[in-house]
């Protein structure tokens, strides 16, 4: 069930650019509703092939949520114990879902940011000899996108005699950008790759280099990073998987264009997607569609096709700013009844 996610054509009502077609790749169609199901499958299967995992072993990972949910699913299915470290600010429904799938969740303090949860996972893996997924460093991350995500995009467009003029993505680990980007550049060299990040956490834009430990993990966080609402995007360091992707292709860099996402537009665009397209995606999906619309307005020409990523489902954000205006519209009595009613009886 992992992969082979559909491309959804967005209507002119949201794109505002008639003559330029934007397709969104619906990663919420994966079994646990995010792009990270691909990575979990790849990391666990690679470890099994390399003899690093046997039944009953413990798998540990640091994650903003989607990876943890995906890894917990794989562990439950294949008989591994699962421990997840996750920084406090990420949404509570993510923690609940991991626990539902049998994982132990360790919440790390907000002050330690993304690096705090990464350090905690490494410390526990070392201490107990657990298998650490290393999503920010491992080649198994980007390779699954080279094998699946990239070919799916190019092949699905070929079936309707279309080519991909622009491919738009953000980054968390950079696995999607590196792997799918590599495949797209090698197999569709005219495609321009657009990478985006929140204006509040402009790591690429400020040309930051991350100092690394021997295993490639970050040895520092960066002052250019500020809290931003796009969960799953842009940690407070440049992941090794992203760095390798950015350096690929020599002078013909993998990133052709860059879009900075201003405050507020990610949530606004996710809400518009829900209300004008019936597409329920997360905050990063809203940000990516906004970047695709910017690309349509500023770079593309009539007849061009743009593909952008929808990394996960909006249902993962019920307690976050994505639903804040919905909460505000529900009156206190309604919310109280909804929260206290133990079961639904007609
Ligand atoms: N959006 C969301 C919601 C995510 O959880 C992630 C992964 N952390 C991404 C986008 C980015 O994916 P990648 O790690 O492949 O860069």
UniProtKB/TrEMBL annotation:
The keyword Nucleotide-binding does not apply. InterPro entries: Cys_Synth/Cystath_Beta-Synth, TrpB-like_PALP, TrpB-like_PALP_sf. Keywords: Pyridoxal phosphate. SUPFAM superfamilies: Tryptophan synthase beta subunit-like PLP-dependent enzymes. Pfam families: PALP (PF00291). It comes from the Eukaryota. GO terms for biological process: cysteine metabolic process; serine family amino acid metabolic process; sulfur compound biosynthetic process. Residues 2-312 form the Tryptophan synthase beta chain-like PALP domain. Its cofactor is pyridoxal 5'-phosphate. Belongs to the cysteine synthase/cystathionine beta-synthase family. This is Cysteine synthase. It comes from Fragilariopsis cylindrus CCMP1102.
